[in-house]
Amino acid sequence: MKTDIEIASSIKLNNISDIAAKIGVDTEEIHNYGKYIAKIPVSLIDEKKIKQSNLILVTAITPTKAGIGKTTTSIGLALGLNRIGKKVIVALREPSLGPCFGMKGGAAGGGYAQVLPMEDINLHFTGDFHAITSAHNMITALLDNYLYRNKGTDQYLKEVVWKRVLDVNDRNLRYVVTGLNGSENGTPAESGFEITPASEIMAILCLSKDIDDLKRRVGNIILGYLVNGDPFTVKDLGVAGAITVLLKDAINPNLVQTTEHSAAIIHGGPFANIAHGCNSVIATKMAMSYADYVVTEAGFGADLGAEKFFNIKCRKAGVSPKLTIIVATTQALKMHGNVPLSEIKNKNIEGLKRGFANLDKHIQNMKSFGQNILVALNKYNFDSDEELSLIASHCEDQGVLFALNESFAHGGEGSESFAKMVVEAIDKKPSQQLRFTYKEEDSIESKINKIAQQIYGAASVKFEARAAKKLALVERLGVAHYPVCIAKTQYSFSDNAHAYGTPKEFSLTISDLIINNGAEFVVAIAGNIMRMPGLPADPQAKYIDIVDGNVIGLS
Length: 555
Hints:
20 helices; 4-stranded mixed sheet; Rossmann fold; Formyltetrahydrofolate synthetase, domain 3; Domain 2, N(10)-formyltetrahydrofolate synthetase; 3 domains
């Protein structure tokens, strides 16, 4: 089979104006970025049409390091729905350059279920990530200038909590010292970099409803604390408007196409292991304004992406899926069944059975949100009929639907029966009213405990000294009503990345809390999770090249 980039390059793209017209968007309204990419203005969102659309969430069991194929499944399902005559749009996150050149590669789907042009989507795209990076670091520069000008006054900050960001994986930048080599070069200070998807501005962009809401949220970002303990914000710095100007184009979602020329909207890119893991509210609502069925995904396993999708995004945006799809693979199931990683492609019935515990926990969690569930298995050529039959039977025993997804190898044709099952499930038994894990009026400590115990299966939660101190600060600032976004490893229900399966009787350690006052949620750092990833021993960048004007090696 051809590589992802070879498949993408072999497909003749339709003009983006044709894609827009096909879904009913006035082509005079779109802002073209060349022939095949456009931005759609936020003003075209229609709240009345949103209420009539069917939102479908794609999540997953706890993934392997190679991922589990949620994006491929999301795109594949959209291809299948389009193939059976449904008006459908897939709404996805934008890829980050960090993982693209690091371990995972790109995030535009795979095989014959991709969004195109994949090389542009995976790289600089429409400059949204650049705008967020620039806006974040512009705030940092303006804050450093403020500190330089107010040194020795009562307006100086006793503590700075705002760092810098870059869209790369670079462990050397986690902790840095700035302002060296004399007073004319600033004030020496400890700082650090996080990856752009972890920026609070990324979260703000993805949760804002329009440009005015974006400006309000940017103004509320806490940069540090004055000597008297009061928070110092972007609004206090007097630059909320200027920063919003840098984001005026980035707030509009991006329209592209799939390998079978159906519409796709791609916007925002927070990671689910360090942020809230969903594309923008604006993108989802835009898709729901123009399609009867909207397929969207939440990052990593359902304990991270789906939990945050429900408790943060749905709670704030007022949307709710009609069906939740949990993606699985035989490899991941066997990994959670204690089969050595080198052998998870081999047939192993007992290992597969042991791995069902991980799937069952995710099913139980999604049911706790009131969701109707379908398990979609990404089929590989080494999967045996016996294994597939066993998984189907197990899902039936659990009272959930089961479908095979073969869109990677066969595009929409390989997901047609999957799509029909989804439509039938929504028609017969749509998900009930969404139930949240916690109430807004719960304390932050209570919210963290409920997520840890009910969703992760933890026996207890330990708050280290720094986190305990921040709990008191949350109460003092009056923001305990904010939802919680737990930053945690994606490879386990616990905060131990090597605890596969379904760990029991573990304690979740919260090392710190970060008040994202603009995004309006509190980030809880679990264990030693890093907000600036490092590169692997064999980075994907070694295989990316340009030959005769054509990009190769992207996947």
